[in-house]
Amino acid sequence: MIKLAYLNVENLDLEKSYNLLPKERKDKVDFYRFDKDKKLSAGAYLLLKKLLKEIGIDDFEIKIGKYGKAYISDQENIYFNMSHSSKFVACAISDKEVGVDIEYNDPTIDLNIAKNYFYNQEYESIMKSQNPSDEFFNYWVLKESYMKYTGLGFNLDLDSFEIILEDEITLKNDKNNIKFNLFDLYEYKLAIASSYNVDECFEYEISEIY
Q1: Is the confidence at residue 67, as pLDDT, over 90?
Q2: Which residue range or ranges hold the 4'-phosphopantetheinyl transferase domain (predicted)?
Q3: Global pTM?
Q4: Does residue 9 carry a pLDDT above 90?
Q5: Rounded distance, CA 113 to CA 122, Å?
Q6: What is the mean pLDDT of residues 177-205?
Q7: How many Cα neighbours within 13 Å face the side chain of 26?
Q8: What mean pLDDT do residues 134-141 have?
Q9: Can you tell me the mean pLDDT for 15-41?
Q10: What are the beta bridge partners of residue 92?
């Protein structure tokens, strides 16, 4: 079981959303100074809540693992991961580990990031592509989705593993048969790492999560 979804939070009603959050998430929203960041935090939680409700889970408790990955502590075999960028949030739920990343596809990105931090073959593939900045973000979201899948996040060095970006996206020397899926959403890139092939990413409207 797996479902991947995303939501534009640009027009999220902060007051209405805030009242639907548990205390722990309210505290997190309060931490942010700008409304843009508050909307991302509130919207990500409400999208997760919506996806869980669709599979019959109304009450759940979120805790934080050793390396910062959030998990549901009171439900068996239910995993989730969230990501946000600019005005979009993304969330996946599954019965197995999952990692998600969404990023704005910025054409002005400094490609030296890939040169200095990516695996050598990945950098070479980026520079040989017809659109290097677009290819950079293909690799970026795929790599970060894997890092989040492992639960290590940036404790796992970006150049310690290699993504093979071909018709079928794979991890070099993968022993766990991890599946990668990549989506273009408007001016954004979205990737998911999981045990499943994900064919569709569902777009939700603000009205569906209140």
Answers
A1: no
A2: 98-174
A3: 0.94
A4: yes
A5: 12
A6: 97
A7: 9
A8: 97
A9: 95
A10: 4, 81
Helices 120-128, 132-150: crossing angle, 10 deg rounding: 150
- Per the listing, tokens 């027009």 go with 11
Q: Does the pLDDT value for residue 140 go beyond 90?
A: yes
- The beta strand positions in 38-187, using DSSP E, are 62-64, 70-72, 79-85, 88-94, 99-104, 163-164, 170-171, 179-185
Those residues with Cβ within 8 angstroms of residue 101's Cβ, 6 or more apart along the chain or in another chain: 83, 90, 140, 141, 142, 144, 145, 148, 190, 191
Contacts 24+ apart (CB under 8 A), 78-85: 78/52, 80/48, 80/51, 80/52, 81/148, 81/149, 82/44, 82/47, 82/48, 83/44, 83/144, 83/148, 83/190, 84/9, 84/40, 84/43, 84/44, 85/188
Query: Angle at CA 111, nearest 5°, toward 105 and 114?
Result: 100
Question: Are the CB atoms for 140 and 134 separated by under 8 Å?
Answer: no
For the four alpha carbons of 189, 193, 194 and 197, in that order, the dihedral sign comes to: positive
What is the separation of C-alpha 189 from the centre of its chain, rounded to a whole number of angstroms?
Answer: 10
What is the biggest distance separating any 2 CA atoms in the chain, rounded to whole angstroms? 50
Tally of residues, the chain: 210
Bridge pairing between strands 188-194 and 79-85:
unpaired
d(CA 112, CA 118) in angstroms, rounded, equals: 9
Please state, rounded to an integer, the average pLDDT across all residues of the chain. Answer: 94
Q: d(Cα 142, Cα 149) in Å, to the nearest integer?
A: 10
